[in-house]
Amino acid sequence: MARLTLEAVFKPGGLLDSHLPDYEFRPSQLEMASAVLRAIEDRTHLLVEAGTGTGKTLAYLVPGLVSGKRVLVSTATKNLQDQV
Prior knowledge:
Layout: H1 6-10, H2 15-19, H3 27-42, H4 56-67, H5 78-83
């Protein structure tokens, strides 16, 4: 079975675009997701700073799913945890 790629998820006409009516491709979101996936695969730490509207939540959740590995997501507040 072919492995799902980040590009297939994030690109225009991709998985998110075809399932989320308001989805908009953001190159910075794909760039962040790629860095997150590399960190997961290399078992390294990663610190990312990204502005409002980048799509940070999907940029760190999707690589976790694509990797097929167990990941831990920690949030600063209960409110943000509930949103995620």
